[in-house]
């Protein structure tokens, strides 16, 4: 029984990681007042760039760098359209998603001729799982031993990085001057402007951070969890992350728990596929797949708590009317 | 003409053309990056779409899809609503159409099934859009997010229905049984035998799409409801003071939008596939966003934009066949760039164009 639980929780951690990176990415962007439908596209772009670069240069770290670069570039396109040009942020996010969906497969096919995939990465070109100190010696301790050895130890570095990013994000957003200004720009940009802050610059910085974090998410998919890029491998994770962000009410620690919950549902769905639950019978796997979205809709409708976005989120800032 | 304002023909002609041009130039650069000749690519694209009867048929077939989804997005835009859930509404609308066809196809001829299927598709599509519309109007949840979520819920629902309930016994592929003749819409190649449509699936739904364009034009510009929709979109506060109920307009607009998207299934489910299958929407719901933006929300513009995207889809297939390094995903890239330039960056060229015309108009005023 304990083994089964640990197994499910273990895959929960692995499935939550990309969501968590993307969710924190969205947090920075939306806290600064830039709605980000384009998380999905940035994840996908990063996953492709990382898969390609890790293969060509035989190094997961160069893959990481390439993934982040591409994701930031896409973020800057989104930023240029929605901050400088004051375009519709949703429309530009949609464009980013399509751009990534098309370009990754198109370039993948042109460069590697494997139906849009990047060539499979050998283990040393991926992020390997790390065994934490004493994991093997402690494995025989009852209850806590297996939890430490099998659940906490044995993940790749990006999994740990994603969870480390949570307190870091909290600290940046709520305890630094930059974070205060970021939130000010997202809540009341004209007040921030009056106080002498550059709304444009702050929003650009938030967008870039968003790009970096989405980059991590994509790199995780193709170079850590998977072994190379596969067409459409983000499979809606950017949107689940967006849902998680709303569910978490734009707060970092909540975001972590929400991503864990959504990851858990995913892990449970895989585990329960085709199995009977006592008393209920076989639950279609689609129920678990749809649950994060249903929960988000219910939350947004205000039936369980109220999710109130940053006030200026989605509204381009016009300095003055001419 | 005040400063910064442009004549209508510039606003509706020159600016969209410039945006489109920018999208095509970037697309050309992408082709160069791949190492192919963009002009060669354009040649195959245009030939594949318009060079022979079957190509034209396919172009019209794809355009039919995009007219429906484009109208759906445009109607919502007029009320200031961003219905990004076209994909899910198409999917559910197809379910409604499929159920009608499955129920009637063995007993009545197609022209009895056809109007029932229209009603079924519109009803199911509208129902799927109703909840996001209602939640936006009554509970204040953001329609963009809700409709995105509903796309995923629709997808999960349809996978379940097709692989567990509608699937005929003894088969493995998740789709319904093929409709009998009573559930099949006549193909144009069998109606207009004098024109060679080849094996293309263009069918009577094309004319339905054109008729629906007329209905939408009447609705938006020549009815009280259309006026309310447009005033609500232009200024929700002012229209509320004028006695227009925001809840009513939001919900009704979303119902119409969903119904329009739902009708797309007539073309694919009843026309081409003659069965209900997984993922038949194939992204057309999102193309609708590009089409509505390019067509500026007007049915005529939407027909033209749909034709362009139909041309790209069919020509792209031909292009991928002739130059295998340029796969069909090139179309997705072009589509993304059109959304980017015609939508998010729509005002990028405006200052330059305005400056150009102002200089022109002031010099004529002095003379």
Structure description:
The complex is a heterodimer of chains A (322) and B (367). Chain A has 322 residues and is an all-alpha fold. Chain A is built from 13 helices and four strands. In chain A, strands 1-2 form a two-stranded antiparallel sheet. In chain A, strands 3-4 form a two-stranded antiparallel sheet. The longest helix of chain A has 30 residues, at 2-31. Chain A is globular. The model of chain A has no long low-confidence stretch (mean pLDDT 86). Chain B is 74% helix and 0% strand. Chain B has helices at residues 8-34, 38-50, 53-78, 86-104, 110-139, 143-165, 188-191, 205-222, 224-234, 236-241, 246-262, 264-273, 284-294, 299-322, 329-344, 350-366. Classes of the chains: A mainly alpha (322), B mainly alpha (367). At the A-B interface, helix 3, helix 4, helix 11 and helix 13 of A face helix 1, helix 5, helix 6, helix 13 and helix 15 of B.
Low-confidence stretches of chain B: none
Helix vs. strand class of chain A: mainly alpha
Beta strand count of chain A:
4
Shape label of chain A: globular
User: Biggest β-sheet of chain A, characterized?
Assistant: 2 strands, antiparallel
Tell me which protein chains meet in the greatest interface and how many residues each side has. A-B, 47 and 49 residues
Helical fraction of chain B: over 70%
The H-and-E topology of chain A, N to C, reads as HHHHEHHEHHHHHHEEH
Number of strands of chain B: 0
Number of helices of chain A: 13
The end-to-end distance of chain B, rounded to whole angstroms, is 17 Å
If you average the pLDDT of chain B, what whole number results? Answer: 88
Radius of gyration of chain A using CA atoms only: 20 Å
Kindly provide the radius of gyration of chain B, computed on alpha-carbon positions and rounded to a whole number of angstroms: 22 Å
């Amino acid at each position: 029984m304990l083994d089964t639980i640990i197994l499910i929780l273990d895959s929960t951690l692995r499935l939550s990681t990309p969501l968590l990176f993307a969710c924190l990415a969205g947090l920075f962007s939306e806290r600064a007042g830039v709605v980000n439908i384009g998380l999905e596209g940035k994840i996908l772009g990063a996953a492709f760039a990382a898969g390609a670069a890790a293969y060509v240069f035989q190094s997961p770290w160069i893959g990481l760098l390439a993934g982040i670069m591409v994701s930031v570039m896409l973020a800057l396109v989104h930023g240029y359209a929605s901050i400088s040009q004051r375009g519709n942020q949703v429309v530009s996010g949609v464009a980013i998603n399509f751009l990534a969906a098309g370009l990754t497969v198109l370039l993948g096919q042109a460069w590697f001729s494997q139906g849009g995939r990047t060539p499979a990465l050998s283990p040393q070109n991926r992020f390997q799982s790390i065994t934490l100190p004493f994991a093997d010696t402690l494995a025989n301790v009852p209850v806590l031993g297996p939890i430490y050895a099998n659940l906490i130890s044995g993940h790749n570095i990006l999994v740990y990085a994603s969870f480390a990013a949570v307190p870091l994000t909290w600290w940046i957003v709520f305890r630094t001057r930059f974070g205060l200004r970021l939130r000010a720009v997202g809540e009341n940009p004209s007040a921030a402007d009056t106080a002498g802050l550059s709304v444009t610059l702050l929003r650009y910085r938030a967008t870039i951070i968003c790009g970096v974090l989405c980059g991590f998410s994509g790199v995780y998919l193709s170079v850590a969890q998977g072994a190379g890029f596969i067409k459409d491998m983000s499979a809606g994770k950017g949107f689940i992350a967006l849902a998680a962000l709303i569910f978490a009410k734009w707060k970092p620690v909540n975001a972590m728990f929400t991503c864990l919950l959504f990851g858990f549902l995913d892990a449970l769905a895989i585990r329960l596929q085709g199995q009977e639950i006592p008393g209920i019978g076989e639950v279609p796997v689609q129920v678990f797949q749809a649950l994060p979205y249903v929960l988000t809709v219910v939350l947004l409708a205000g039936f369980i708590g109220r999710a109130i976005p940053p006030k200026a989120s989605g509204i381009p800032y016009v300095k003055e009317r001419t | 003409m005040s400063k910064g304002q442009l004549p209508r023909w510039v606003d509706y002609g020159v600016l969209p053309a410039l945006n489109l041009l920018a999208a095509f130039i970037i697309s050309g650069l992408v082709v160069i990056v791949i190492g192919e000749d963009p002009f060669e690519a354009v040649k195959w694209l245009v030939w594949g779409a318009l060079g022979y009867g079957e190509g034209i048929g396919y172009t019209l077939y794809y355009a039919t899809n995009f007219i429906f989804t484009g109208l759906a997005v445009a109607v919502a835009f007029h009320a200031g609503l961003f219905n990004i859930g076209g994909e899910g509404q198409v999917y559910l609308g197809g379910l409604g159409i499929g159920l009608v066809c499955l129920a009637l196809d063995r007993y009545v001829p197609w022209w009895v099934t056809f109007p029932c299927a229209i009603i079924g598709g519109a009803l199911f599509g509208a129902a799927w859009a109703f909840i996001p519309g209602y939640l936006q109007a009554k509970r204040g949840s953001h329609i963009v997010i809700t409709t995105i979520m509903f796309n995923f819920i629709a997808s999960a629902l349809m996978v379940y229905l097709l692989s567990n309930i509608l699937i005929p016994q003894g088969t493995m592929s998740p789709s319904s049984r093929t409709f009998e003749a009573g559930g099949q819409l006549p193909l144009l190649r069998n109606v207009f035998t004098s024109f060679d449509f080849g094996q293309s699936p263009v069918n009577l739904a094309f004319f339905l799409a054109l008729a629906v364009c007329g209905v939408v034009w009447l609705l938006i510009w020549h009815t009280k409801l259309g006026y309310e929709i447009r005033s609500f979109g232009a200024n929700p506060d002012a229209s509320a003071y004028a006695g227009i109920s925001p809840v009513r307009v939001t919900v009704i607009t979303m119902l119409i939008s969903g119904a329009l998207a739902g009708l797309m299934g007539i073309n694919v489910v009843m026309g081409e596939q003659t069965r209900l299958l997984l993922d038949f929407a194939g992204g057309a719901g999102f193309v609708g966003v590009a089409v509505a933006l390019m067509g500026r929300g007007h049915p005529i513009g939407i027909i033209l934009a749909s034709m362009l995207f139909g041309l790209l889809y069919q020509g792209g297939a031909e292009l991928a066949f002739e130059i295998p390094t340029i796969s069909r995903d090139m179309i997705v890239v072009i589509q993304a760039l059109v959304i980017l330039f015609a939508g998010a960056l729509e005002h990028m060229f405006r200052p330059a164009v305005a400056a150009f015309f102002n200089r022109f108009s002031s010099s004529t005023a002095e003379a």
